Amino acid sequence: MHPQFTLDLSFGAIRLLYDLHGEPCVIGDVTAFGDDLPVRMVKLLSLAATLSTPPIATTLVVPREHVLYRKVRLNIDRDVEERDVLEFVSREQQFNKDELCVDWVVDGSEVYIAAVEKLTLLEADDFARQHGFVPTLFTSSVRNSKYPRKPRFPVPKPLNGPV
Predict the structure, then answer these.
(1) I want to staple 15 with a disulfide (CB 3.0 to 4.6 A). Which of 8, 64, 107, 146 is the partner?
(2) Exposed e or buried b for every residue in 37-48, given b needs 16+ CB within 10 A?
(3) d(CA 158, CA 3)
(4) Which of 69, 73, 67, 117 is nearest to 95 (CA)?
(5) CA-CA distances (angstroms) from residue 98 to 137, 145, 158?
(6) pLDDT at 160
(7) Is this prediction's pTM over 0.85?
């Protein structure tokens, strides 16, 4: 089931949207800083609870500045797999493959890639859960034609070792 709620996280604000017949409707927003942020987040959760019974399943939108978008040609004679995408991104960006979450879309010989650090998703997940929301999917906004759709990142498993 697709979550009815979306928490759009940005550097300046947190916006709560509700999916009303397929159209996202803003039902509340708060500034992302200040000592009273927990109180303001309780108000957002209360708004969600008036429309749905908890737990409030939520899609989280991470700031696009945290997502790497690439379009590449991968010369392989089989379907593109996650390991291929992880290998490309980790080599290009010098990340450990275990530290990344990726999504990709194949269009002919081109592969559109969206990659984000797991730590970013884990921090967003922790923030949402602390405030009563239950993340079920992560995404980000996309500029221009960098990606053919909104990326979809799963809820990440915790990183191995110290963070």
Answers:
(1) 8
(2) eeebbeebbeeb
(3) 22
(4) 117
(5) 19, 28, 10
(6) 61
(7) yes
Place of tokens 């609870």: 49
Angle at 147 between CA 143 and CA 153, to 5 degrees: 105
Q: How far is CA 136 from the centre of its chain?
A: 10
What is the DSSP annotation of the chain? ---SEEEEE-SSEEEEEEEETTEEEEEEEEES-STTHHHHHHHHHHHHHHHSPSSEEEEEEE-GGGEEEEEEE---SS---HHHHHHHHHHHHT--GGGEEEEEEEETTEEEEEEEEHHHHHHHHHHHHHTTEEEEEEEE---TTSSSS---BPPPPPPSS--
Q: What is the dihedral of CA 45, 50, 55, 56, to 10 degrees?
A: -60
Kindly report, residue by residue over 55-103, the tens digit of the pLDDT.
999 999 999 999 999 998 877 667 888 998 999 999 888 889 999 999 9
Identity of the amino acid at 60: L
Write out pLDDT tens, residues 133-161: 999 999 999 987 789 999 999 988 876 65
